[in-house]
Specification:
By secondary structure, this protein is of the alpha/beta class. The protein has two domains: about 180 residues, Molybdenum Cofactor Biosythetic Enzyme, Chain A; about 80 residues, Alpha-Beta Plaits. Helices cover about 40% and strands about 25% of the residues. It has a six-stranded mixed β-sheet with strand order 2-1-3-8-7-6, sandwiched between helices. Helix 3 packs across helix 4. The chain is elongated, with a radius of gyration of 23 Å.
Length: about 270
């Protein structure tokens, strides 16, 4: 089974529009730089039941999934607890996380010119940020040392949990990719070749699209309609994408099919995936 990459973005602030999600486009960029591609993404609010259900599906998928947000220690942070519930394990203070969090608290005390008081209530509470599901592995955080964590499931996949702050999350995601998955980088180059079908209708193109997919598997055909483009007006971007070795034959067949139905075409586009 080929593992896919997925993304889970947690937070009411995204769904309410209070914050604009920046993780999805950045994650796509980080994957593309390594010859990888995103297969799916889920947005989830701060609802423990829904987060748990989403994580249960993630762990069962066998895929490589990153989850952003909700791993702090405030009442609206539920991701750590939901991850444990989804895995059916207990939570415990991770020893490496405890060391890193205590280092961070000492750094903060020095910066503020105050003594470090490990038993002070707020410092004790901060240790909750290192309470992870049993069996978790930490993800180092170069910004402020407060780690994320990774959990594996029997399906062979893993979910990697990072903070919602981009300045922390993105280098942590890169670290996981580069440390754990370099064997997947640029393993199967993918390309996309498309053309603008001017004034086209999807219903007219559907039989051609179905035939191309049937005769050129594993190539996938896609169509992206536009109704008000300032230059090309109503059109459909029609194309094929998949392994670089097999897309060219499908592309030639697609172009021949468009010619046979008298389609009016515009510019072509080629993109490495």
């Amino acid at each position: 089974m080929t593992q896919k990459f997925g993304l889970i973005i947690v937070g009411d602030e995204i769904l309410s529009g209070k914050r604009v999600d920046k993780h999805l486009p950045k994650f796509i960029e980080l994957l593309a730089a390594r010859g990888l591609a995103l297969s799916y993404a889920d947005y989830v609010g701060d609802d423990p039941e829904r987060i748990t259900a989403t994580l249960q599906r993630a762990f069962a998928s066998g895929d490589i999934i990153f989850s952003t947000g909700g791993i702090g220690a405030t009442p609206d942070d539920h991701t750590r607890q939901c991850a444990a519930r989804a895995l059916g394990v207990q939570l415990q203070l991770h020893p490496q996380a405890e060391v890193l969090i205590r280092e961070r608290m000492q750094d903060m005390a020095r910066e503020q010119g105050t003594p470090y008081e490990p038993e002070r209530a707020d410092n004790v509470h901060r240790l909750n940020m290192g309470v992870f599901p049993v069996g978790a592995h930490i993800i180092p955080n170069p910004y402020n040392k407060i780690p994320g964590f990774s959990c594996s499931a029997g399906s062979g996949g893993a979910v990697h949990f990072v903070p919602g702050f981009p300045v922390m999350a993105w280098p942590m995601i890169e670290w996981v990719l580069d440390q754990q998955y370099p064997h997947l980088f640029h393993r199967a180059p993918q390309i996309e070749h498309s053309v603008l079908v001017l004034g086209g209708m999807e219903a007219t193109l559907t039989p051609l699209m179905e035939r191309i997919e049937r005769e050129h598997a594993p190539v996938r055909v896609f169509s992206l309609p536009s109704v008000d483009h300032p230059v090309h007006g109503r059109h459909i971007e029609l194309g094929v994408k998949g392994p670089a070795a097999v897309v060219p034959a499908a592309w030639v067949d697609l172009c021949a099919g468009l010619h046979s139905i008298g389609a009016k075409v515009g510019p072509e586009l080629v993109r490495n995936l």
